[in-house]
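Reminder: ligand-aware prediction takes two inputs, not one.
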Amino acid sequence: MPDTADRVLRNARVDGRDDAVDITIVAGRIATIEPARAVDPATALPDTARGAPGPASLDLGGRYVSPGFVETHVHLDKSCIMDRCSAHEGTLAEAIREVAKAKAGFTADDVHARAAHTLERAILQGTTRMRTHVEVDPGIGLRGLEGVLRLVDEYRFAIDIEICVFPQEGLTDNPGTEELMIAALERGARVVGAAPYVDRDPHGQIDRVFAIARDFDAPVDMHLDFTLDVSRMDVAYVCAKTREHRYQGRVTIGHVSTLSALPAARFDAMAAMLADAGVAVTVLPATDLFLMGRGIDHDVPRGVAPAHRLVHAGVNASLSTNNVLNPFTPFGDCSLIRMANLYANIAQLGQRAELALCHEMITGRAAQILGATEHRVAAGAAADLVVLDCRDATQAVAQIATPLFAFKAGRMTMSRAPAVLHRP
Ligand SMILES: [Zn+2]
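Here is what comes back for the chain with zinc ion:
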């Protein structure tokens, strides 16, 4: 163990090792991972789990240390507004309409307070990195951005936040919105988003979004093909634009629920096209389940794109939360391990390797979408970690394991005591 260690996580389990290990953290990074040494009972978990920022040495009792969870797609600005909206139809059109009405009353302080609440829930669930979408249009102006932008510094101790600005109420059909997107990028948004299906000319919006992204040398992250109508898909157009602008590896598309409705041969062709263009896919199981298939009274389709099949075809994919407590998704606890479990349920995945892949899609694969390629528990990597009350990634997904500790650059940011059974 290095003499300069800031912290040692003793008796831990990590991916790729059968034995228990000690993880030494120096200057915010993992310095060494070595076979576990005998533990001093005085530092055992029940005694050390109480206080943050916590002791320099922590015995994890053989629990699993995962890379911190990574949220690639979440809407902090419109979270926690169910008390201001209704969701009677449960359709996408109703959700956009209801949120547009509620947005008229948003102030920067109101957005900040709700977004901070949601963000803290995410941190308490073990999330250490996030891309959040923020809406701009002539109605909300930059108030949403102002509310969310403040969180980037306020919560830097626990989470890296990247803002993706996007035109939920249209771009080419909504004059003034493009200027606001540009203003948002000048003020700190890092990614250009889209919702092409809300404009009459979706390809026109896609063209403008790529043009803006090129001007700012920014990545692109679009909501795309958020229906079950396979007769009208924009995936091929986005892949073509990605190649044309040499944007391979910098474009992500979210939802793409149409992929769930394609016959196998057409799905395989689409997956090959995405892999070839280097376009990643974020699947948003909670929202897709809630909004898709409305109006169908039996054999209701799930409407959730098969992310695992995309990965097998060479596409990078992540699973993410999307909405929390609003008409797009009137529930949510910001738990990504629950989202991975939900996806496994929907996609009928039960084998060990399949469950481990679900975990990858909320950790390493998700981080890669955000440009963080070294997001793993390995010597040299940043110590952005979550300790789960289980033995490995498979159990974590299968059992929705409870996060007990989170660390950002080696500093403890969250702790939760394991539940105790009180016998008579
Ligand atoms: Zn979204």
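Residues 108-124 form the longest helix (17 residues). Residues 45-54 have pLDDT under 50 and may be disordered. We will return to this case in the review session.
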